[in-house]
Design brief:
single chain, 10 strands, alpha+beta
Length: about 260
């Protein structure tokens, strides 16, 4: 495996995670005093840029910690691995700050696409979104495969892609209503996933995020080229469909 493989793994983990271990620094009243490490669980999604967002309650200890010191680390990992240490994992470090009010509708929509069950509590008064301003990342992709990445290595530039970001909700609705067979083909033929009821949950200039209807499995499918608007999106999806059909034919020939 070369450095490009490791970068692909890191980008995949960034985009496919639904939960993370959240590391914060404690307050003075904690058992070990101020500044001690504190680990907790948080639900996780990403913005079109790939910037991680979490939904937290003001009642939680980690939120109190963040209000005093927003420095944080998120650990995301491969799941469904018999030996967890054989799976890849990615630590994302930065500052986890409150999402500005003007971004909340976008964050809320993308978060609920990945966490439909959160619709029952996302609007409670004590809940709010925080976005990680990524400073760097640390990947362990297997024995002896350890690499660090800068934020720019992992995040997706959105310059020139405003039309795509605006079109995302309608594009996802259309794909999920009329092209579920194609989504399943992308997941199985291009991402190597098992068959299932696959839905599109997000898209950005670099790729398409898919999740099964039961929210138990996620995959990432990269576009052949950067996509910035509805026209280039249609072309990219057509190329993916052709590639998925070719993969299916190759699989049939092998069997």
């Amino acid at each position: 495996m070369d450095s490009h493989d490791d970068l692909d793994i890191a980008r995949r983990l960034l985009r496919t995670a639904r939960r993370c271990a959240l590391g914060t620094r404690t307050l003075a009243d904690a058992p070990l005093g101020a500044g001690a490490p504190f680990a907790s669980l948080a639900t996780y999604a990403t913005l079109p840029s790939g910037a991680p967002v979490v939904l937290v309650s003001r009642l939680a200890v980690h939120t109190r910690n963040l209000e005093a010191d927003s420095r944080a680390a998120l650990l995301v990992e491969d799941v469904d691995i018999a030996d967890p240490l054989e799976g890849a994992r990615l630590t994302l470090s930065g500052r986890l700050d409150t999402v500005p009010a003007d971004l909340v509708p976008l964050v809320r929509r993308r978060f609920l696409a990945r966490h439909p069950a959160a619709a029952s509590y996302v609007d409670f008064g004590d809940f709010g979104f925080r976005q990680l301003t990524l400073a760097g990342a640390h990947l362990v992709a297997g024995f002896g495969r350890i690499r660090g990445f800068a934020a720019a290595d992992l995040l997706t530039p959105l310059a020139g892609a405003a039309d795509l970001v605006e079109a995302e909700p309608s594009a996802l609705e259309h794909m999920n209503a009329d092209h579920r067979d194609a989504l399943a083909a992308y997941a199985t033929g291009l991402a190597g996933a098992a068959p299932g009821d696959w839905r599109a949950t997000g898209l950005d200039p670099d790729g398409l995020d898919l999740m099964t209807a039961d929210a138990r499995r996620t995959v990432r499918v990269r576009f052949p080229e950067r996509v910035t608007n509805a026209t280039t999106l249609r072309l990219a999806l057509r190329e993916l469909a052709d590639a998925a059909r070719a993969a299916a034919r190759a699989q049939q020939q092998q069997t």
